[in-house]
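User: I'm curious whether this sequence folds into something compact or stays loose and floppy. Could you predict its structure so I can see for myself?
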Amino acid sequence: MVDCLRNDGVIVYPTDGVYAFGCSLHSPRAIERLKAIRGKKDTELTLMCEDLSRIADYARVDNPTFKLLKRNLPDAFTFVLKASSKVPDKVLERRKTIGVRIPDNAIPRAIIHELGVPLITASVKEEDDVVEYTTDPELIEEKWGSVVDLVVDGGYGSAVPTTLVDLTGDEPEVLREGAGELIF
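Assistant: Here's the prediction. I'll summarize afterward.
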């Protein structure tokens, strides 16, 4: 699987929310494929990290932000942070922020650990609707198996999205309520 990702592959894998499309941060070709497969705008891609130590490599994290992240991760959160210059232009395009996640699921964390770099990711869903083929790996394989390189079966997934929190302002702002309950 990691060789697939290192060779411009796009996979579908389980998270602590719905299943997600993913590719290597270091693969511009795969990032373009992921965008095309998912029909994503550049503002909707997320950086999936293995642990807190990697977030600071790709986003600006001050002490209060780090403490908030440490209290809440790993879990079902996506935090919007100011991106650092290490995030490739293919990911950011014209924006200056990046969503970051550390899932509370061993499968993606093991993938990222073995790969050695974060994944660029986007949820398996359409028009912001969560339906059965976003949580059932067999249905995901039927729908998306011909356009991705690999579907990782991690069992039936959750239909509840992550809680989306913007940390770019003076105070944290919950943009979407989801599975994670923010601890201040």
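Summary: The domain at 2-176 is CATH 3.90.870.10 (DHBP synthase). DSSP finds seven helices and nine strands in the chain.
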